[in-house]
Design brief:
Elements (H helix, E strand, L loop, with lengths): L1 H12 L3 E7 H10 L1 E6 L10 H14 L4 H7 L17 H15 L2 E8 L5 H7 L5 E7 H12 L11 E5 L1 E3 L7 H21 L13 H17 L1 E3 L7 E8 L9 E4 L4 E8 L9 E6 L4 H17 L6 E4 L8
């Protein structure tokens, strides 16, 4: 009963609509091409993307391979007694190296994300994503976004890890914070890895190969979910974005035919096109908000947005204007 109540409360806490901010070109592209872009996280505006989990995992592993009290006592020929209630859970250099190799593989996978916000009318978002013209925020139903993500992953198991996330709320952490959900998950993963390594060393190897008995494979199994965590963990400086993400982890060992590139101000940016599947699902677009601007442009943008929605067969979505009295000269 308690678990059911927890799930119901969590469901109630989730927003009904999630908003994708874009400029007029983005709005036209999304509705005309019926897809939304998932961009490689290394090319987003937060340069720490993907690095926070890796740094935390490296620090946790590194802290476990430091010289132990027992070794210090042995150097001086003094009997060592393990403190009660505080068992040392350490790893040797070879185990550390194997774990580090798997950690690098997991946390540096090619992660592509499509971003949404809980808030459809935020000045900081308009400034960041509207370009120099009128911006738009497109309000998608939360369950619809999950449905199109699941549909996209179907049949792509050889190219996209099944640990990819259908739709997850980002966690915002301070780089110097000693406590966070992220760091707790990292610590639990390392604990589980060390425990599995100890159990494996006491068990016979599988005939014909080590399988998950090998240290590297154990590390990969225990750290794999941290790859998803890496793609949805952001610096606390971005917390006002209240971001949710569809996250896709590409398997580097498999060619991905759907990979595309677009031009930015300095480099080609890799991205994936995620079909909106209007034919398979209802459109899921329930609202479009026209960004802040003067009244004349707002009226023109509102009318053209309505026409574009009708042309795309989306009749259920309302079009509103931002209530923020800001204009971009």
């Amino acid at each position: 009963m308690e678990e059911q109540a927890r799930q119901e409360n969590a469901s109630q806490a989730e927003p009904e609509l999630l908003y994708h901010y874009t400029d007029h070109n983005g709005l036209i592209g999304i509705l005309t091409n019926r897809c939304i872009w998932a961009t490689d996280i290394r090319y987003l505006n937060d340069w720490s993307e993907g690095k926070l989990v890796w740094n935390s995992l490296f620090d946790e592993l590194n802290s476990r391979v430091d010289i132990t009290n027992e070794q210090v006592f042995e150097l001086f020929g003094i009997p060592y007694k393990q403190p009660e209630g505080k068992p040392e859970r350490r790893i040797d250099g070879d185990t550390f190296t194997s774990a580090l190799s798997s950690a690098v593989f997991v946390t540096t996978q090619d992660a592509f994300v499509a971003s949404f916000s809980e808030h459809g009318d935020r000045l900081s978002q308009w400034r960041a994503y509207s370009g120099n013209g009128v911006g738009f925020s497109i309000g998608f139903e939360r369950n619809y976004l999950r449905a199109i993500s699941e549909s996209y992953m179907r049949g792509r198991a050889d190219r996209i890890f099944d640990t990819s996330s259908q739709l997850v709320q980002c966690e915002y952490v301070h780089a110097n914070s000693s406590s966070s959900t992220m760091k707790e998950l990292v610590k639990k993963s390392v604990d589980a890895f060390i425990n599995d390594v100890g159990t494996s060393s006491e068990s016979p190897r599988m005939e014909g190969g080590e399988g998950f008995q090998s240290t590297s494979a154990i590390a990969l199994r225990r750290f794999l979910l941290l790859g998803v965590l890496s793609s949805i963990t952001k610096d606390s400086g971005f917390s006002e974005e209240a971001e949710w993400r569809l996250a896709f982890l590409l398997n580097r060992n498999s060619a991905h035919a759907g990979l595309k590139f677009r031009a930015s101000r300095s480099v080609p940016v890799p991205y994936l096109e995620i079909p909106l599947n209007f034919d398979e699902f209802p459109s899921g677009i329930r609202r479009v908000i026209v960004g802040p601007c003067d009244q004349q442009r707002s009226e023109a943008a509102t009318e053209s947005a309505k026409m574009l929605l009708r042309q795309s067969g989306i009749k259920e979505a309302g079009v509103d204007s931002s209530v923020i009295p800001y204009r971009n000269w």
